[in-house]
Specification:
elongated; mainly alpha; 4 strands; 11% strand; two-stranded antiparallel ribbon; 2 domains; binds zinc ion
């Protein structure tokens, strides 16, 4: 779309597309520069959470990298995340939370022996 429209036309066209998408509940929008984006969602609701997961799956398929969608290895978490690591070897949704908890449990287990 960007190659064919002047900047003002692009912003107007993006606004129109975004308005149509909002009426349908498609969950997508276009920036003023014509870039497609996921529409904002309410993360505090169950629907907002489901939409987030679906957007992750959709994004991974579009990028041709569905293997980057993973479930956190923590049995208490099981959060779905998109593995952005260059080596594609992340196992925790967050090293600061689930990764740190795993390291602490492993450390305590070694000390108990
Ligand atoms: Zn986790």
């Amino acid at each position: 779309m960007r190659d064919h429209l002047a900047r003002a036309d692009l912003a107007a066209t993006s606004a129109e597309l975004t308005a149509v998408a909002a009426r349908t509940g498609a969950g997508i929008r276009w920036s003023e520069t014509g870039s497609p984006e996921f529409a904002e969602k309410d993360h505090t609701t169950a629907d907002g959470f489901v939409i987030s997961v679906l957007q992750i799956l959709f994004f991974a398929e579009i990028k041709g990298e569905p293997e980057r969608v993973k479930v956190c290895r923590s049995s208490q978490c099981r959060f779905v995340f998109y593995d952005r690591s260059p080596a594609r070897n992340s196992t925790w949704c967050s090293m600061d939370i689930c990764g740190a908890r795993h390291k602490m449990r492993a450390y305590r287990s070694r000390r108990a022996r």
